Amino acid sequence: MNIKLNKTASLVVLFTLLVGCASLSGQGNTVVLTDRAKPQLIKRVQPKYPKSAAKSGVQGWVKMSFDISKDGKPVNIVVIESMPNQVFDKAATDALSQWFYQPKVVNGQPLETKNYSMRLDFNLGRSN
């Protein structure tokens, strides 16, 4: 009886698959635009370490907030906090302004994304 049940179950699965394939065959060349819940980083530019900070052996970080435009560009960049204060701010904002994101997509349309934040670390001898 187990063998008969397994054959029956196999036939049901096979039939279901065939019906599913047949129902898809009439759809033609349909393009589905995939929504993306959040922007994805495409291009990252390393910040230039300030010469005076490198010469003095100073390390630190910069925390920034920004929006990502429909075109994928960081805009409205604001330094929230930095350590040491203002030493790496310009290098960090200059680098971030050159980054590029694949924007958020909803219903096939790119959207501006607001209120992103990130921290760039400046460490001698190590990359960000």
From TrEMBL:
Which top-level group of life is the source organism from? Bacteria
Annotated PROSITE patterns: PROKAR_LIPOPROTEIN (PS51257), TONB_CTD (PS52015)
| Record's GO cellular component terms | outer membrane-bounded periplasmic space; plasma membrane
Question: Where does the UniProt entry say this protein principally localizes?
Answer: membrane
- Signal peptide interval: 1-25
Kindly list the biological process annotations in GO that this record carries: protein transport; siderophore transport; transmembrane transport
* Presence of the UniProt keyword Membrane in the record: yes
**Which molecular-function annotation in GO is an example for this chain?**
energy transducer activity
Organism for this UniProt entry: Catenovulum agarivorans DS-2
Read off the PANTHER family from this record.
Answer: PROTEIN TONB, PROTEIN TONB-RELATED
**Claim: Hydrolase is one of the keywords in the record:** no
Q: InterPro entries annotated for this entry?
A: TonB (IPR003538), TonB-dependent_transducer (IPR051045), TonB/TolA_C (IPR006260), TonB_C (IPR037682)
Q: Where is the TonB C-terminal domain?
A: 34-128
Family assignment from sequence similarity: Belongs to the TonB family.
- What protein name applies here? Protein TonB
Per UniProt, subcellular location reads as: Cell inner membrane
Q: Which UniProt keywords apply?
A: Cell inner membrane, Cell membrane, Membrane, Protein transport, Signal, Signal-anchor, Transmembrane, Transmembrane helix, Transport
Report the membrane topology from the UniProt record.
Single-pass membrane protein
As for what it does, the entry says: Interacts with outer membrane receptor proteins that carry out high-affinity binding and energy dependent uptake into the periplasmic space of specific substrates. It could act to transduce energy from the cytoplasmic membrane to specific energy-requiring processes in the outer membrane, resulting in the release into the periplasm of ligands bound by these outer membrane proteins.
